[in-house]
Amino acid sequence: MKALICNEPGRLSVIERPVPKPAEGEVLVRIRHVGICGTDFHIYAGKHPFLEYPRVMGHELSGTVEEAPATSAFKAGDPVYIVPYLSCGACHACRKGLTNACQNIQVLGVHCDGGMAEYVCVPEQNVIPTGDIALADAAMIEFLAIGAHGIKRGNIGSSDRVLITGAGPIGMSAIIFAKARGAEVTVMDTRSDRLAFAVERLGADASLFADETAEAEVQKMTQGDGFDVVIDATGNAIPMQRGFNFLAHGARYVLLSVVRQDITFSDPEFHKREATLFASRNAQPDDFAEVVRQIQAAKVPTRALNTHIGRLEDGVQLFEDWSRPEAGVIKAILEV
């Protein structure tokens, strides 16, 4: 089978390797679509904190069942999407139901080889029927679940004023699910095109350009209060630290981003606000279910989000092209 492998930062190649054979309890899936995530671009750029090279990337996956255990409810040809978080089921986090934060987690395409390939084997519990959702749309369920999980972590409700910093795909998913909960949402970024998309296509209530005037603008927008919830989806330590400046008293700050560096903040400012800081990692089964509900309810503009499509065998050149800001990528999908 063909696979697209990242040999080292900045160097990809298409290779041939044997079709994997499923172990007991595993399903062999014929991959049809692979969403490219900010994580994949970070791996390509050498910026991901949890990865060793070489690595076959790809964790936003949909396809069809090729082979399933005899006792399985799946049969060959069934359309499915994959939950890419392989949890151990035995550690402290798993015993508490926090499989997204498993102490021994293996995320496809990060800790182990993923789905930028023609076939992949995964445990049966990680294979989910797509129902009436198209396979191309199903390849976007995972990144949308990341945003849904972050919104859940922030306990966002209809009375909250929310600032989402970073209008990439993860930030956009956070906008979608914050709006689904009835919150008032402002989005901040350095790209005017993405700010316009967030307002016009995703229903954000306001936008804010991330320049040196942002703090003063936030004071005007919130009558000096700050935001009830700030969600960082920038993937950059400097704006992550800056986000503390936008918190209201009693606010919650959710970090969807993960970076290699330490981040710092003013403890007196944080303490006097009695603010709460949340990490948000991966997603849980109910987050995936929420995404499916919202797609089925036509609340997720999947066709607008999927701006670029290409073939797996062209991935070496496409990664180089799509990683440039001028390419205008929101969500790129490789067809297999």
Reported for the largest beta sheet, the result is: 7 strands, mixed
Total helices: the number is: 12
**CATH-defined fold name of the largest domain:** Quinone Oxidoreductase, Chain A, domain 1
Number of domains: 2
Morphology call: globular
Which CATH class of the largest domain is shown?
Alpha Beta
Radius of gyration: 20 Å
- Uncertain segments of ≥5 residues (pLDDT<50)? none
Verbal overview:
It is built from twelve helices and 18 strands. The chain has two domains: 2-139 and 301-335, Quinone Oxidoreductase, Chain A, domain 1 (Alpha-Beta Complex), CATH 3.90.180; 147-279, Rossmann fold, CATH 3.40.50.720. By secondary structure, the chain is an alpha/beta fold. The strands form four sheets. Strands 3, 5, 6, 9, 10, 17 and 18 form a seven-stranded mixed beta sheet that branches.
List the helices and strands and how they pair.
Layout: E1 2-8, E2 11-16, E3 26-36, H1 38-45, E4 55-56, E5 60-67, E6 79-82, E7 85-86, H2 92-95, E8 106-107, E9 119-123, E10 127-129, H3 135-138, H4 141-153, E11 161-165, H5 169-180, E12 184-189, H6 192-200, E13 206-209, H7 214-221, E14 227-232, H8 237-242, E15 247-255, H9 267-272, E16 276-279, H10 285-296, H11 302-305, E17 306-311, H12 315-322, E18 331-335
Parallel strand pairs: 11-12, 11-14, 12-13, 14-15, 15-16, 17-18
Antiparallel strand pairs: 1-2, 1-4, 3-5, 3-9, 3-18, 5-6, 6-10, 7-8
Helix pairs in contact: 4-5, 4-10
